[in-house]
Amino acid sequence: MSAEPAWAPRPPRPDVYGRTRAVLGDPTPLACTAALTAIEVVHGGDGLDTLLRWITPEVRERLARQHSLARRIGRHGGVAARIVRARACRVSPRATEVAVIAQIGSHARAIAIRLEDLAGRWVITVLDIG
Description:
By secondary structure, this protein is α+β, with helices and mostly antiparallel strands. It has helices at residues 28-42, 48-51, 57-72, and strands at residues 81-92, 95-104, 107-118, 121-129. It contains three helices and four strands; from the N terminus they run αααββββ. The longest helix is centred in the middle third of the chain and has 16 residues, at 57-72.
């Protein structure tokens, strides 16, 4: 495992057609935005549709299930959440894991996110809210 930060520049790689792709940047802002939206969704709020481009179908199904359960018990979002800290670590040349700490009122939640380079963009393949 490399100790270099997730946003360290990488040499461009050719894609399947032999064209060189631009190097992906730091995924931390995307992870933080996705974490805040996911917290809102699991508390019954809307916003899952805004994440569709950035998440896999498996992550979408899991968030949709949690959203449905929250709505059944009467939650409708509106939580005041903020990101306290985020730390990214590149685990392979094509994957990064981000640990996010979010504060919801007086409670803190840990969120683990794995982003992978799929077709030249960051896509969230795992999103776990603790």
